[in-house]
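Q: Could you write out the predicted structure for this multi-component system? I'm mainly interested in how the pieces pack against one another.
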Amino acid sequence: MSKEKGGLIKRLDGLYEFDREPVSKNKLQGASNFIAMFSGEHIAGTEFVLGPLFVVHGVTAPDLFIGLIIGNILAVLSWALYCAPIAVRTRLTVYWQIRKICGPYLTFIYGILYALILCLLAGAMVTVSATAVGLPFNMPMPKLTDTMPTSVTWVVVVFVVGTVVSLLAILGFEKLAKFAKVSAPWMFLVFVASAFAVLPKLGVTSLSDFWSVANEKIWTGNVVAGQSKFTIWHVIFFSWLCNLHQHIGMSDMTLFRYAKKWTYGFASAFGMFLGHYVAWVSSGILCAAALAINPNNSIAPGPIALLGAGVVGAVTVVVAGWTTANPTLYRAGLAFQVATPDWKRWKVTLVAGTATTIIAMFPAVVNRLTEVVALYGLIFMPVGAFIFIDFWVFPKIGLKSNYAELMNKMFSIPSALAWGGSLAVCLYLYFKYSLEIYFLALPGWFITVIFYITFSALEQKYGLFGVKSTNLNKTVEA
Amino acid sequence: MRTLLMVLSYIGLALTILPSFFVFKQVISWDLHAQLMLAGMFLWFLTAPFWMQKKKDDTAS
């Protein structure tokens, strides 16, 4: 057992060797870097999927425009007021912060879960790219209700795209990251240009026509058969919480530890309002134009981008999917490496790439992307709650912060019980009341906090799961 | 040289976005817009990586 413990710690330490110390002052970065990072990261291939989903789920135009403003402001505030302030005070990666609070075993579980979820997201991006690559081959596009692979051509195209993405992630991650930075401003303009170019097909020839056409032909409130009805609440909660893992889940601590000031959290507004507002509205317009021309038209990313910008649209879908799948796959490989200590980085990335390619063959990942993204946030939300409570609340209520590190614990039972307990309650609410997953994150956060404070108090004050904090000084002296 | 590359890049971006406004105003055809966007794409990717990378290196040094 002790050998296993030592092995796990060695693996984690080896993997994050250069990230364990707080970032030094000379490595801090200016606001412009954060603006560029957020703008690039949130104008991605999946924007071609999420915009149309609001159209097919019957969102009305006022609900969309107002809901996206409110949701995106809440997302920006979550980065600026919740995540960034802790990041600039600790200057540690989220992994090290979790390890201090939850111990190495839960950090290990976090890493593996994170890797699996990243494979799902990378899979969605490969699927998006495949819808454009398949265009010259007259590949039948998956329909909104499809969950399984739809044709041999689809499987072959996804396999080829997945293999290329995986190999490029192995061979030249750095160069591709640079290519992604170059692509970002161009991609954003393609989104906007595509939408403008199809507006005449919907009957809009002047800006004064837009609002009436938006209500009558784009966000009509009519649900496409087989889809559920979305209201303004769905729009607000989804746009706020689709990046829950990064802000409320605190994974962007790893990013903001380089910020000179916590106010750089507001740089997220560039990603939210360019990507999750303008790009979603633009891809929604493309989707409505495709359906207006022929209700049987495919609204897969490739065909709708082709409709707006021709060959450039198809290239954009490939580039957008590819440039976002690449870092996602790289991060998944990094996270998997905790479990495979003797494997080289290329081998782990190849395994992650293979998993991603297989996942991408199932259109369910893209057709149910809102649920996938929401589930991903819900799973990691409790970890962000632990960090927030541990940092701000524990010192005020007489509990010790970073208790696992302080007591040299491998496994924090209060964290495990609060994590598992809150997820169990959320799942119960999901099945009992058939709520959308992204409505569960908010009550889930409060449930996590109650569980975490209660179990931590039981541990630290009454020694229920181990050593009391009052015995801490004796332990240290001994 | 860098200035020239930057000018060409910005022309590339202009060719990406401006034709769509002309399609919207029904001044040019959708086909011409698609061709101009294609030209803009080539112009951007053939020039931007050089000065964008250079700018980053200069900042780093």
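A: Regarding packing and overall arrangement: The first helix of chain A runs from residue 2 to 15.
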